[in-house]
């Protein structure tokens, strides 16, 4: 189970005059993927959402977080990526307040 709380100081891909980024995340573990809803006009989004991922194999699997800026008129822009090994969670049983850099 992943509880996604927030992100901070994401890159502003929309430029100075047109506002801030509209971030969303694609979260993947193995063959399972969730798209986190877009939060408009912020580089410090708050989601407070929980997602369940079945873990078939602990060793070698990872939670992949890919951050994008949602753009209506063009392709979404890549903001960054982070990976968390599922073995870290399995060893500890529970991780709270875990921040990752993109």
Question: Strand portion, in percent?
Answer: 35-45%
Number of extended strands: 6
Question: Describe the biggest sheet?
Answer: 4 strands, antiparallel
Mean pLDDT: 87
Q: Which overall shape is indicated by the principal axes computed on the Cα atoms?
A: elongated
> How much helix, percentage-wise, in residues?
under 10%
Question: Radius of gyration in whole Å, from Cα?
Answer: 14 Å
Number of alpha- plus pi-helical segments? 1
- The largest sheet has its strands arranged as 3-2-5-6
Give the N-terminus to C-terminus distance in angstroms: 21 Å
Any overview of this molecule?
The chain has 102 residues and is mainly beta. The chain is built from 1 helix and 6 strands. The protein has one helix spanning 86-92, and strands at 2-6, 23-29, 32-36, 46-51, 62-69, 77-85. The strands form 2 sheets. Strands 3-2-5-6 form a 4-stranded antiparallel beta sheet. A hairpin with a 2-residue loop joins strand 2 (23-29) and strand 3. It starts with a strand and ends in a 10-residue tail after the last helix. The mean pLDDT is 87.
């Amino acid at each position: 189970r992943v509880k996604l709380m927030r992100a901070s100081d994401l890159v502003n891909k929309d430029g100075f005059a047109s506002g801030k980024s509209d971030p969303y995340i694609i979260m993947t573990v193995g063959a399972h993927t969730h798209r986190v809803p877009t939060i408009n006009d912020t580089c410090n989004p708050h989601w407070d959402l929980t997602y369940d991922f079945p873990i078939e194999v602990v060793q070698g699997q990872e939670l992949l977080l890919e951050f994008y800026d949602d753009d209506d008129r063009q392709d979404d822009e890549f903001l960054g990526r982070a990976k968390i090994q599922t073995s870290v969670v399995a060893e500890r049983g529970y991780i709270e307040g875990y921040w990752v850099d993109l």
